[in-house]
TrEMBL record:
Keywords: Cell inner membrane, Cell membrane, Membrane, Protein transport, Translocation, Transmembrane, Transmembrane helix, Transport. This is Sec-independent protein translocase protein TatA. Residues 43-76 are annotated as: Disordered. PANTHER family: SEC-INDEPENDENT PROTEIN TRANSLOCASE PROTEIN TATA. The lineage of its organism: Bacteria, Pseudomonadati, Pseudomonadota, Alphaproteobacteria, Sphingomonadales.
Length: 76
């Protein structure tokens, strides 16, 4: 059983009466803010995932050991 046009109009009128026009627009604005903050969080997460992590020397367990070796090679 599908709702008729009149039933949809009555439900829409009741929603407007209960919540008011201003309240519905506020809720839609909040939904938009939530979507924007979600997208911002996703792009920040992707940006942090793209940053290279320092290589850790397996012998000493020091992250700076790898960079000091490359610095010595370029100095020679």
């Amino acid at each position: 059983m599908q709702p008729s046009v009149w039933q949809i109009l009555i439900v829409a009128a009741l929603v407007l009466i209960l919540f008011g026009r201003g309240r519905i627009s506020e809720m839609m604005g909040d939904v938009g803010k939530g979507i924007r903050s979600f997208k911002k969080g996703i792009t920040e997460e992707e940006a942090s995932a793209e940053k290279p992590t320092p290589k850790i020397d397996s012998k000493s367990g020091d992250a700076s050991a790898e960079t000091s070796k490359t610095a010595d090679k370029t100095a020679v």
